[in-house]
Amino acid sequence: MKYDVLIIGGGPVGNYLAYLLAGDFRVAVVEKKGSFGGKACTGIIGAESFERLGLPKDAILNKFRGAVFYSRIRSFEVERKAPQAYLVDRKILEKTLAEKAIRRGAEYYMATTFIGFRNGRAVLQHLGKEFEVEATFYIGADGVNSAVAKAIGARTRAEFLTGFEVEVVGDFSRKDFVEVWVNKDMNPDFFFWVAPVNEGLARVGTFGSVDALARFLKVRMLKPEAVVEFKSGVVGFGTRRPWVRGNVALIGDAALQIKPTTAGGIVFGMVCAHALKNALLEDNLDAYEKACSWIRRQISFGLRFRRLFRRLSQDAIEEIFDVLGSEEARAIIEAQADFDDHLKTAKAILRRPRLLAKLIRISPSIVRALL
Ligand SMILES: Cc1cc2nc3c(=O)[nH]c(=O)nc-3n(C[C@H](O)[C@H](O)[C@H](O)COP(=O)(O)OP(=O)(O)OC[C@H]3O[C@@H](n4cnc5c(N)ncnc54)[C@H](O)[C@@H]3O)c2cc1C
């Protein structure tokens, strides 16, 4: 049996790619797990991207039209009339995409693990039995610890962080607002998020250490005994190259196509899936990386932002909150902020002379990092 494309990894990106390709190619997906979902992931996806990518509406659990930002002593909020982001159920998202791909002709090998390549074929294992599958192209969509990336000798320069997330029962009456808490005294590695599923349940998490999350739950007055789900998972902020070697390409977390600003990776991977589809249609895999240049620019902006965050003291963060919480800044964020284009959002703020001057006064490195 020879396929045109064998996708290794049936996460959101692998399944989305399978769905995109199945009409034009003979496609198969290999997924290590026996069922979809289960990965640690809050599931926040920008509303505009969700609609543009045509993702299944059944997966939407909640819609956010605003955010409240808290530092150690300050807070401000931004709000829009229309929803800006959706909270999705990962299992429904992944399974529905897989079902749609199968309806278009894709074939799935569940509970099957990719082991490596041998003589141009993929070596797979299902319930202890090894077998080989041949394809013209192989795509590694197998996540941050990609075995495909290792098999092609891709080089990684990245910061790896473990994320910890709970689903906790509490009072979240403003269920259409996400909370973002930036407090380096509580967690020097990352911000905390509170994303309501509904008025009585929220996904709360951070990256760095589980102790930091425990401290935050206490401060946010959420009881550890009210936690109904706990998950952890790893993200990688940095670069993994090349994305293409011979007839093998990497996509999604396997290629570290993830925002270092927020650790969101679903949209970037899916945007790259379109670029990969076009490259495959042209029979020119090398065109894929070039077509993802927008994503590469966003990632490199995110890495600069991340380095800046690492260097900033909490006192400097308090001053930045002062600037971003001003009426002028909030008006810009409300009118122009783009959930998936953080570079555009930063530029919109820095274009205002008064805000620019205030940020330079806090530290010129802020402006250097953001431009
Ligand atoms: C705590 C946390 C919160 C997050 N929150 C968000 C969020 O709110 N929004 C967002 O956009 N992103 C979020 N992310 C990031 C997001 O989870 C990833 O970017 C996204 O899952 C990437 O999708 P993917 O399909 O590339 O990889 P994965 O989702 O990792 O899927 C890879 C698939 O490959 C399979 N696989 C692995 N190895 C093999 C193998 N050898 N053989 C066969 N199959 C294999 C795995 O079982 C898995 O199903 C979060 C991450 C963490 C850790």
TrEMBL record:
Sorted alphabetically, which InterPro entries does this protein's record hold?
FAD-bd, FAD/NAD-bd_sf, Geranylgeranyl_Rdtase_fam, Geranylgeranyl_reductase
- The FAD-binding domain extends over 2-186
A GO term, aspect molecular function: oxidoreductase activity, acting on the CH-CH group of donors, NAD or NADP as acceptor
PANTHER family given for it? DIGERANYLGERANYLGLYCEROPHOSPHOLIPID REDUCTASE (PTHR42685:SF18), GERANYLGERANYL DIPHOSPHATE REDUCTASE (PTHR42685)
Descriptive protein name: Geranylgeranyl hydrogenase
> What organism does the UniProt record list as the source?
Pyrococcus yayanosii (strain CH1 / JCM 16557)
